[in-house]
Amino acid sequence: MDALxxxxxxxxxxxSAMSDQQMSNLLWAAYGVNRAESEKRTAPSARxxxxxxxYLALKKGLYRWNSENNQLELLKxxxxxxxxxxxxxxxxxxxxxxxxxxxSRMGKMEEASKDFYSAADCGYISxxxxxxxxxxxxxxxxxxxxxxxSVAMLLGLKSSQKIVFAQPVGFAxxx
Length: 175
Prior knowledge:
Elements: H1 2-6, E1 13-14, H2 20-31, E2 33-35, E3 40-41, E4 52-58, E5 61-66, E6 71-77, E7 95-102, H3 111-135, E8 138-140, H4 148-155, E9 161-172
Antiparallel strand pairs: 1-9, 2-3, 4-5, 4-7, 5-6, 7-9, 8-9
């Protein structure tokens, strides 16, 4: 109840890194495996397609989260946070989550259905991030305004992979 009461969108960040444990907890809350015997996750997935991969932009580089091993895999060194969204505040978040749906995991269905299901599933993941952020006194906001083409190139995505949206997370500026 406290997390739901505290859930909010926050767009002001202190440019400060999270601890490894905080990032690990955040990623697990977002889309971690919570029932290992069946590989079910903390967020539901239509038809159990589990089509999402989570990428991160940190001050030190771009990463793909390997949820099975709970490890970050470095894709590119450098600070790309400010290149993910069109808003200036994104560059100062501790990290920017980039939610990527792999349509090749979604079976044979129309593109419009893939768009619908991936958007719904991404909503569940991002809400988990909101609730985690509220529980940790962090700011976050969902970004629909993402530089999709340039970010897809930065991440080296395949044509079957689509960026649904991004979500910066970080420490709130003190008032």
